[in-house]
């Protein structure tokens, strides 16, 4: 029988929404403090929202979406198994890579870059070959 969660602990949706707030905040080039100021809360409160530690009510979600300039639905991306997730770009390095990749317009160059990254990933995931 699975362990019961406390009714006060964050759900996977709270965590996903918080992660999406963080991704969109970073995408807009905002600091936690800047977002907090526009929301009228402390930056520590924004940290709690982004970690899923504190839930955001409907009014706060509307305000966050407005400040970030995204539809409210964007904050719920990845909360349904059938929908794509922003988890890929949830850390700064992944986000930088995705952002840089999106600026490349040449399809051949994009494909070459994808092939390179896949080869690097495959090489790193394989154990080194012994020298003979």
Explain what this protein looks like in three dimensions.
The protein has 132 residues and is mainly alpha-helical. It folds into 2 domains: 12-90, 434 Repressor (Amino-terminal Domain) (Orthogonal Bundle), CATH 1.10.260; 91-126. The protein is 57% helix and 0% strand. The chain is built from 6 helices and no strands. It has helices at 12-27, 32-39, 43-51, 58-68, 92-103, 107-125. α1 crosses α3 and α2 packs across α3 (43-51). The longest helix has 19 residues, at 107-125. It starts with 11 loop residues before the first helix and ends in a 7-residue tail after the last helix. 17% of the residues are buried. The mean pLDDT is 83.
Topology:
Layout: H1 12-27, H2 32-39, H3 43-51, H4 58-68, H5 92-103, H6 107-125
Radius of gyration: 19 Å
Structural class based on helices, strands and sheet pairing: mainly alpha
Give the number of domains.
2
- Please state the second-level CATH architecture of the largest domain: Orthogonal Bundle
State the CATH topology of the largest domain: 434 Repressor (Amino-terminal Domain)
């Amino acid at each position: 029988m699975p362990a019961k969660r406390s009714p006060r602990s964050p759900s996977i949706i709270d965590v996903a929404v918080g992660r999406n707030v963080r991704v969109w905040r970073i995408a807009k080039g905002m600091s936690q403090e800047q977002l907090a100021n526009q929301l009228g809360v402390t930056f520590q409160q924004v940290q709690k929202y982004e970690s899923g530690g504190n839930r955001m009510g409907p009014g706060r979600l509307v305000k966050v979406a407005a400040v970030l300039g995204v539809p409210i639905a964007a904050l719920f991306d990845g909360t349904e198994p059938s929908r794509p997730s922003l988890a890929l770009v949830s850390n700064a390095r992944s986000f930088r890579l995705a952002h840089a990749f999106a600026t490349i317009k040449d399809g051949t160059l994009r494909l070459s870059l994808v092939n390179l990254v896949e080869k690097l990933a495959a090489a790193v995931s394989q154990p080194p070959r012994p020298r003979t």
